UniProtKB/TrEMBL annotation:
Highest rank taxon of the organism: Bacteria
Cross-referenced InterPro entries: ABC_transp_permease, BCAA_transport_permease
Assigned protein family: Belongs to the binding-protein-dependent transport system permease family. LivHM subfamily.
Molecular function GO terms recorded: transmembrane transporter activity
Compartments reported by the entry: Cell membrane
GO biological process, one term: amino acid transport
Key words, A-Z: Amino-acid transport, Cell membrane, Membrane, Transmembrane, Transmembrane helix, Transport
Membrane-crossing segments per the record: 6-30, 65-88, 100-118, 145-164, 193-214, 226-255, 262-281
Record protein name field: Branched-chain amino acid ABC transporter permease
Keyword Transport in record: yes
Length: 291
């Protein structure tokens, strides 16, 4: 029984790592720009469909996946930059509800655009050769691709930590999370920063979409589920805190996966029970700051 729990927890960890990649982009946008970007899930879904198209055009499942990995996140990041520059910055001084309504409208537009281009059928993306088997952990099989997701999630977490702590761009983002008005007064081009942060966040959502495509179906509606979980992650971890997003994503992934093993019908409820517990005990999130 303990072997099964461990494998199930590792499966939840791999899912949590994909969720972390997506949610880390959302928490950067939310923490820096104070925008609850409902379109973030649309970037994830768009990247998943782009992965399907690129993989189909290339033909070879390994090279197709690698091509999608190189192409989809930058394309989605570019779409995000255009949305921020062309739409969001024009209503930046208006009340926040305008931004909420606009980002929600973008989700509807993207969904309809995807439906026009790809249709409403379910799509699948084959796992790369060499990652479609399983490794043995305590005499039990564990998918190799899922193990790769855990490794990639750790590398992304380390990379983001270094970006935010060792580069000028990252330090400026952290300063903006702490006090956005102050960095503007110090001469930082806030608009350019916002565009860069939004593009980075969209690119991370796109990367998550590429990574998730081979482990599930690519279909309309996957944006809704990922955005709900992503908001839960940043609330649990603390707004604007990438390491908090990592902890929140791992917690949600593992709790959901282990919950499926014991009480399948209530598995998703355990996620929101954990969310409610954090809100009651530590409203600012596990690693969030008191305001």
């Amino acid at each position: 029984m303990m072997d099964e729990i461990l494998i199930q927890a590792l499966s939840g960890l791999s899912r949590g790592m994909v969720l972390f990649v997506v949610a880390s982009g959302l928490t950067l946008i939310f923490g820096t720009m104070r925008i609850a970007n409902f379109a973030h899930g649309s970037f994830y879904m768009l990247a998943a469909f782009l992965t399907y198209s690129v993989a189909t055009m290339v033909g070879d499942r390994t090279w197709g996946f690698l091509a999608a990995l190189c192409l989809a996140p930058p394309i989605v990041a570019g779409v995000g930059a255009l949305i921020e520059w062309g739409l969001l910055k024009r209503i930046a001084t208006r009340p926040h509800q305008y931004q909420l309504i606009l980002t929600y409208a973008i989700t509807l537009i993207v969904a309809d655009g995807i439906k026009m281009l790809w249709g409403s059928d379910y799509r699948t993306v084959a796992r790369p050769a060499g990652l479609d088997g399983a490794i043995t952990i305590l005499d039990m099989p564990f998918p190799t691709y899922n193990a790769m997701l855990i490794l990639v999630g750790v590398l992304i977490a380390v990379g983001l930590h270094l970006l935010l702590t060792r580069t000028r761009f990252g330090k400026t983002i952290r300063a903006a999370v702490a006090d956005g008005e102050m960095i503007g007064a110090l001469g930082v081009n806030v608009q350019r920063l916002f565009t860069g942060v939004f593009a980075l966040g969209a690119g991370l959502a796109g990367l998550g979409g590429v990574l998730a495509a081979p482990v599930g179906s690519v279909s309309l509606g996957i944006d809704s589920s990922i955005i709900i979980e992503s908001f839960a992650v940043i609330i649990i971890g603390g707004v604007g805190n990438v390491m908090g997003a990592l902890i929140g994503a791992v917690l949600i992934g593992v709790v959901h996966a282990v919950g499926i093993l014991f009480v399948p019908k209530l598995a998703i409820a355990f996620v929101f029970i954990a969310l409610c517990a954090v809100l009651l005990i530590r409203p600012q999130g596990l690693l969030g700051r008191n305001t």
